[in-house]
Structure formats: structure tokens, C-alpha cells
Write a structure and sequence with these properties.
InterPro entries: CRISPR-assoc_Cas3_HD (IPR006483), CRISPR-assoc_Cas3_HD_sf (IPR038257), P-loop_NTPase (IPR027417)
Helix content: 25-40%
Organism: Ancylobacter tetraedralis
Number of domains: 2
Domain HD Cas3-type: 1-170
CATH class of the largest domain: Mainly Alpha
Family: In the central section; belongs to the CRISPR-associated helicase Cas3 family.
CATH topology of the largest domain: Hypothetical protein af1432
Largest sheet: 3 strands, parallel
Number of helices: 14
GO molecular function, one term: hydrolase activity
């Protein structure tokens, strides 16, 4: 919900739906997102964290999510499951829901043994935990019986899949969302405040992204006047959706692209930039150039992320992964906006990233 509270993301949702997304539909989508890890209730998944698995077969939570849908009755999720089960195209939404790790998860065959059962020798009751989740749904979404998700068109479901994957990455970061073992009915207010703050901190809102001046040539370069190819880009109106510039090496295409970026940013059309080049070597060289240009363009310059798997670089700083999933940066700074640089799946969540064409294809657009 915090992501869809950002103007850019909300406009993209509207574009994917081909009409404005209604607030009641947004809440229905939030209910679905609430259920995306429901498979973790299964004893077979919980046993992964037990010191003694007690002979419980280990299971993956995505498969268990599908199998949970076969356990539903009138009392499931404190009586809320029946409302969700009656939503139009619910199977399509479940397909999207259980694909939140970025790949489709095929619904298991009917003969597969259920991972949901009562354990006599372990103090874990998955049904009681499901009851807590249902109570939370009722408390946090009191209008659940009346809301419905938007039509499950392929275009919008594709958008939802990407948004859910991004939200899952953000919400799984314990630096922003410290783990709480005990159920707390009012946690929703805490989570909303933390989500709003984290979305700002990691650069997924327009907050703090201010150009030093008007998006003209003087903002991009200290050369007196742009070259011919660059000047041509400067005349293209912000509403133009596709701009192709073909020019010889050394004609200043990078600066032309930055000028276009500044123009669209000032017009509120975009909030991020990705440079896609053919090779990793070219990306490394260009990342330094782009990072230097950002210092000139912005009052509080974002760091250009190097979008090359296996390398962790934001601006001029290099990072090293530590065993506890944290990062050690060689400039000893901890900047939340470097979150996007810490894993290849997040590269295109950066405000500015420089990488290869292949990386763009594998990660998708922000």
C-alpha cells in the first residue's frame, strides 16, 4: 500500500488497469499480499527453524501455500477465507501470489500429501496461528467482506506480480522491520509507519530527489553549448514516449540521455534511470561517468548503482557481503539508498543504475 501511495507507482497501476484503481480494490490487493507467505504456517516449513525437526518432512512454503488452499473451511482464517475464495478469478490471483519469488509456481497435483497436520510431540499448532492471521485480517481490513480486487487482466496481473516481488524484498529486511515473535493486534499501524519511512529511505519515493536547477543544458555540462545530437534531444517534449538517438562515438549520447532524464524527472513523468550497455566493461566505465554527472545535476545526488551481478558498487563505494546478510562498505557509510545495490534482484529498484542489456532483460523495468 505504501508503494501504491507513491504517485509514479499509482499511475502505473492505473495504466496497467486502463482506468483509475479504486481504493477498495487497493485494499483487496493488500489482503492478497497479506496471504503471500501463508504456506509458512505448515509444520514442514516451520521445522526448518527448529533445533530438532522431530522427523517432520521439510517442505517449501510456495508449494505449501497452494496446499493450504485445500484445507479451507468456514472457520479458516477466522472466517475470512470464504470471502477471499469467492473473489472473481481467485485462481489467477493465487497463481500471481505464489510466484512472488519471481517464477511461476505450478499448482501441486491432487494426490500430494498435505503438509498441514497436528503434531503431538511439538508445541506448534498451525491452525491456531492461522486463527491469529484471520483476526489480524479482520482488524486491519474491516471492510474485507465487501471489497473485491480489480479485474485480473494479464496486463494488470503482470504489474501486480512485479509490485508484490518488490514489496516482499522491502518487507523482508529486518533493518527496517525488526522481527516480533508475539502477535500484536495493533502491529498494522507500526508496519504502515515503517513502510512509509523505508520507501522514502531507499529511494522509491520522489522525496529528496531535487535537481539543482532547470533541466537545461547548463545543468548537464559546463560546455557552452550542446552538440547537434544533444541539442536535438533537448527539443523533444516530455510527453514523447519513445526517443531514438543514433550518433557516432563521441557525439555525447550519454549527456543527451542525462538531459532527457532531467527533463522527464522535472515533468514528473519518471523517477529513475537505467543505462543499458552491451558489455560489463562498458558498464563499469559508464557508471563512473554517470555518477560524476549526478553530482552536478542534483542538490542531494543519488549514487549510481553498478548493475552487474557479483559486484556491489554504489557511487564510488564498494561493498562486501557479510555472513549475517549485512553489508560492509569501504567508505564506512551506511546509506539506506544502497539497498538496491546489495543484490542483483534489486538493481532496477535503484534511482539510477548502470548495467548491461542482459541485466535489464532478466530483472525487468522499475
Amino acid at each position: 500500500m505504501s508503494l501504491l501511495g507513491q504517485p509514479i507507482f499509482r499511475r502505473r497501476a492505473d495504466a496497467a488497469l486502463r482506468r483509475p484503481l479504486e481504493d477498495s480494490e487497493l485494499r483487496a490487493l493488500a489482503v492478497l499480499v497479506f496471504l503471500h507467505d501463508i504456506g509458512k504456517l505448515a509444520p514442514g516449513f516451520q521445522a526448518k527453524g527448529w533445533s530438532e525437526p522431530h522427523g517432520v518432512p521439510l517442505r517449501g512454503h510456495l508449494e505449501c501455500g497452494w496446499l493450504w488452499t485445500r484445507t479451507l473451511d468456514a472457520k479458516s482464517l477466522a472466517g475470512t477465507a470464504g470471502h477471499v475464495a469467492r473473489w472473481p478469478a481467485i485462481r489467477t490471483w493465487l497463481l500471481a501470489l505464489f510466484a512472488h519469488h519471481g517464477r511461476p509456481v505450478v499448482e501441486p497435483e491432487s494426490g500430494l500429501a498435505s503438509p498441514f497436520y497436528t503434531l503431538r510431540h511439538v508445541a506448534y499448532d498451525w491452525k491456531a496461528e492461522e486463527q491469529h492471521m484471520g483476526e489480524a485480517l479482520l482488524a486491519w481490513f474491516p471492510d474485507l467482506p465487501t471489497v473485491r480486487p480489480p479485474p485480473a487482466s494479464p496486463r494488470f496481473v503482470h504489474f501486480f506480480c512485479g509490485l508484490l516481488t518488490l514489496a516482499d524484498w522491502i518487507g523482508s529486511d529486518r533493518r527496517a522491520f525488526p522481527f516480533e515473535a508475539a502477535f500484536r493486534p495493533d502491529y498494522w499501524r507500526t508496519a504502515q509507519a515503517q513502510a512509509e519511512r523505508r520507501v522514502r529511505e531507499i529511494g522509491l519515493s520522489p522525496h529528496g530527489l531535487a535537481l539543482r536547477g532547470e533541466p537545461g543544458w547548463a545543468l548537464i555540462s559546463d560546455h557552452v553549448a550542446p552538440r547537434t545530437a544533444q541539442a536535438a534531444i533537448g527539443t523533444v517534449p516530455p510527453g514523447e514516449r519513445l526517443v531514438l538517438l543514433e550518433a557516432e562515438t563521441g557525439a555525447g549520447k550519454t549527456e543527451a540521455a542525462l538531459w532527457r532524464f532531467a527533463t522527464l524527472l522535472a515533468a514528473g513523468e519518471i523517477e529513475a534511470l537505467y543505462f543499458a550497455v552491451p558489455t560489463r566493461a562498458a558498464a563499469r566505465q559508464l557508471q563512473r561517468r554517470v555518477n560524476e554527472a549526478l553530482q552536478r545535476m542534483f542538490a542531494d545526488p543519488p549514487e549510481a548503482v553498478l548493475a552487474i551481478p557479483g559486484q556491489v558498487r554504489a557511487g564510488e563505494a564498494a561493498g562486501m557481503r557479510l555472513p549475517d546478510f549485512t553489508m560492509l562498505w569501504d567508505d564506512a557509510q551506511e546509506r539506506p539508498t544502497r539497498w538496491a545495490a546489495e543484490h542483483s534482484a534489486r538493481f532496477l529498484a535503484a534511482r539510477v543504475a548502470v548495467g548491461t542489456v542482459d541485466q535489464r532483460r532478466s530483472a525487468g523495468f522499475r
